[in-house]
Every structure is written in C-alpha cells, then in structure tokens.
C-alpha cells in the first residue's frame, strides 16, 4: 500500500480517466482499471475486493434497472414494426407548404419517436434513413438537415421513456416515475424551440429550406387528415400505455415498461410485422444493450466506491462548496463539469460517476433534488452532440447514404445552434423551475 492524500487520489483517479479515455479503449475498461489499480495501491487487495464485492452486490439488487432491458426491447420491436412508416409522410403532407417544413416535420417526428423508443441510436438511425435524403434532394442546406436530425434524435434520451432517466434516478435516490414526468415539459420545450429556430431561419433565408414547389402541392383534404390521425393512433396508444400507467399511479416505471413491451408486440402483430425472427433480433439487441449497461455500471460502481472511500468525494465537495459567488456559481461549476465530461465520456459513465458525488453536494447547496437531476439530464443532451465523443453525430454519419455527400463538418456546424438552444432551455428551467416540477407534483401517488 502507498500513503496518498485524498487530494492526490482525486487527481490520480480523475486525471487517469481523462488520459486513458484518449487512448480509445472502451470506457468500462478505462474506469475499471483506474478503480482497481488505485484501490490496490491505497487500500491493498483485501479491502479493495471487499469494497468492490459490496458495490457489485448492491448493483445486482437494484430493481429499477430491470426497466433498461424492457424499454430496450420495446424500442427494438417498434423500430421494425412499421408503426412509423406512414407517420412521417402524413406529417409532411400537412406542413409541406411551410418553408423548412421538412426539417420541422423531422423534429416533430423525432419527438414522437422519442416518446416511443427511448434509445438515441434507434431514433437517429430512423430519422436519417427517412428524412435526410428527402431534405438534401429538395435543396435543404446540409447542415440544417443534419442538425435537425441529430437534435430531434437526441430527444430520445430525455423524453420518457428514457433509459438515461431509468439509470439516473436510482443513483440519485429519486423516483423514476417522477423523473419521467419532470422530463416531459423540458423535452417538449426543446422540441418547440428547435422547430421555432428552423422556421425563423428558413423565413430569413428561404434557400436553406425551400417549401414544396407550387406545382407539386396537393390539397390537404379529409382523406389526408384521416390518414394523419390514423398514423398518430399507434404512438399515442403506446405513450398512454407507458406514461399513462405511471402518471395515474397504476404501475411504477419497471412494470410500465413491461406494459410497453406487451403493447409494442401487439402493434407489431397489428401491422403484420410480428415474427419469431423479430423476437430473436429484439432479444439479442436487448441482451447486448443490457450487458453494455451492466458492464459500465459495474465498473463505475467500483470506481465510485474506491473514490468515496479514499476521501476524494470530500475533496470535490469542498472545492465546489468553496467556489466564490454562492450556490448558483457552485451549481454552474457542476454543470460546466458535466458539459466537459460529455465531450469525452459516454453518458452512462457520466451518470454512474458524477451523480453519487454531486447529488449530496447539490442537496447541501439547497437545490431540489428532482430539479437538479433534471437539469443535469438536460445538460447531457449536449453530450451527444459535442465532439469528440458525439454519439448522435457518429450514428448519423454512419447511417447517411454516401451519395448525399454529408460530411462530419456539415453535421457539427448544423448542431451548434441546437446546442445553444439547449443552453437557453437550461436558463429557462433555472428561472422557472415549475417547468420541471409542476407535472411530478400532479402525479397520483407522488411523494
């Protein structure tokens, strides 16, 4: 064992993660190796194994995490069920006359997908395959088209049912159901601001998002209106099945996730897409995602266990609480740290590392835990859109047809305005906390 001060352990563990992430190794191995080697050096093998065993055991008994595979399964089934097949076209027929209408429809469609899938990769992939080619071929600016897809697809990790919220809530000792309700209005506000930005920008510069040519416009008659309503029914039923049961107090999120799985299977049957091949594909994808989550969770649990037992958590708390400028400046420092981490570390690593450390600090500063948690989750919307670790950008680039010529530069320039919009929404939620807190307070059975 080596005698190290708490400050030295803090520097080694935080610095070690930052340095090793740059090597390109998977985040689970990076975090786990830092935890193991630091633990062996500071506590010795016996104490280290005891800390790790207790942490892993606690993780295995964490009941809310059962919602992760259930929501993943639901999302994969829906992705291949054909539920969204007609919805995009119906929305475009309703808004095609609007300048930038295709981008607005893409954001609206992404918002609906977010409330059905809860998985970013699926949302961004579907939006890219459905919306990118029509926008680019109709003369839309590539950056605006790509930015709209990335921003809309990233809503899938905020608007419930969101896997991020399922993972975050147990770490902060919060109710998953209340976090789901707390995310509804911020998610919808982001979506509305995204659409407003596109409309204003395309009105100022029509060349960025031209409307349908006059000779291609057909009347939006009763038949098209009925088709739109018909295409909206499946997503509405699914949202009601999941969020309705939670809001009404009928079932907690984990059981509501099971209801969502059942509803998604019924929709796949109704659309004639159900098959045992689909079930096998969904099951395998669910196991992959769940194993990924549990692997990172286990390593992060180990990391936080060593970090806190070495007294490094007290060092971080003392630093943040001593920042001049009062509690709001301390809160700004926490948000800045989360934003910077999002540029280098995947969201799940951020949640498992910083939430156990920051939650007690935020409580000591006097902030509402639910509000503070949602602010961090909104902040992490930017983590998916800020290079070098920008998952949404890479999913779009990997899915986009090469003949469209959309570059990484186009995508990055396109997402910058949407990142600024997220910052504006964060400020609004800070000034008007009821945006987050009002709906959870109306839940049946809310504490």
From TrEMBL:
Q: Where exactly are the transmembrane stretches of this chain? A: 12-43, 63-82, 102-132, 144-168, 180-200, 232-251, 257-277, 289-308, 328-355, 362-384, 411-439
Please verify whether the record's keywords include Transmembrane helix.
yes
The answer to keyword Transmembrane helix applying to this record is: yes
The record's Gene Ontology cellular component field reads: plasma membrane
Major location category of this protein: membrane
Q: Which UniProt keywords apply?
A: Cell inner membrane, Cell membrane, Membrane, Transmembrane, Transmembrane helix
The annotated topology with respect to the bilayer is: Multi-pass membrane protein
Subcellular localization is given as: Cell inner membrane
Query: Molecular function (GO) terms listed?
Result: transmembrane transporter activity
Q: What is the organism of origin for this protein?
A: bioreactor metagenome
Q: What is this protein called?
A: C4-dicarboxylate TRAP transporter large permease protein DctM
Q: Where is the TRAP C4-dicarboxylate transport system permease DctM subunit domain?
A: 14-435
């Amino acid at each position: 064992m080596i005698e190290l001060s708490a400050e030295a352990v803090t520097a080694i563990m935080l610095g070690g993660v930052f340095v090793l992430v740059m090597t390109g190794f998977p985040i689970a191995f990076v975090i786990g190796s830092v935890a193991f080697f630091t633990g062996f050096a500071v506590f010795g093998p016996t104490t280290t194994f005891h800390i790790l065993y207790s942490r892993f055991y606690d993780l295995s008994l964490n009941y809310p995490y059962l919602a992760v595979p259930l929501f993943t399964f639901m999302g994969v089934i829906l992705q291949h069920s054909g539920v969204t097949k007609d919805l995009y076209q119906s929305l475009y027929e309703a808004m095609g006359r609007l300048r930038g209408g295709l981008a607005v429809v893409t954001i609206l469609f992404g918002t609906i997908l977010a409330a059905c899938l809860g998985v970013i990769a699926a949302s961004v992939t579907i939006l890219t395959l459905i919306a990118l080619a029509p926008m680019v071929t109709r003369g839309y600016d590539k950056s605006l088209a790509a930015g709209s897809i990335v921003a809309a697809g990233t809503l899938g990790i905020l608007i419930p049912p969101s896997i991020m919220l399922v993972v975050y809530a147990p770490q902060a000792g919060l109710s998953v159901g209340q976090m789901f309700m707390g995310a509804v209005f911020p998610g919808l506000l982001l979506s509305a601001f995204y659409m407003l930005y596109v409309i204003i920008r395309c009105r100022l510069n029509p060349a960025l998002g031209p409307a349908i040519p006059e000779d291609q416009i057909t009347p939006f008659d009763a038949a098209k209106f009925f088709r739109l309503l018909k295409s909206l029914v499946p997503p509405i039923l699914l949202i009601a099945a999941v969020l309705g049961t939670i809001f009404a107090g009928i079932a907690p999120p984990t059981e509501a996730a099971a209801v969502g799985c059942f509803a998604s299977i019924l929709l796949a049957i109704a659309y004639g897409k159900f098959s045992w091949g689909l079930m096998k594909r969904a099951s395998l994808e669910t196991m992959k995602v769940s194993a990924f989550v549990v692997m990172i969770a286990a390593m992060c649990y180990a990391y936080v266990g060593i970090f806190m037992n070495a007294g490094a958590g007290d060092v971080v708390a003392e630093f943040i609480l001593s920042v001049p400028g009062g509690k709001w400046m301390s809160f700004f420092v926490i948000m800045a740290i989360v934003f910077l981490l999002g540029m280098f570390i995947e969201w799940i690593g951020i949640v498992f590392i910083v939430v156990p450390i920051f939650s007690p600090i935020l409580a000591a500063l006097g902030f509402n835990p639910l509000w503070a948690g949602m602010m961090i989750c909104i902040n992490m919307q930017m983590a998916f859109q800020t290079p070098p670790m920008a998952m949404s950008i890479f999913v779009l680039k990997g899915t986009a047809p090469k003949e469209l010529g959309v570059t990484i530069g186009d995508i990055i320039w396109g997402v910058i305005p949407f990142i600024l919009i997220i910052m504006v929404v964060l400020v609004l939620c800070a000034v008007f906390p009821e945006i987050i807190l009002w709906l959870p307070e109306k839940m049946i059975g809310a504490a």
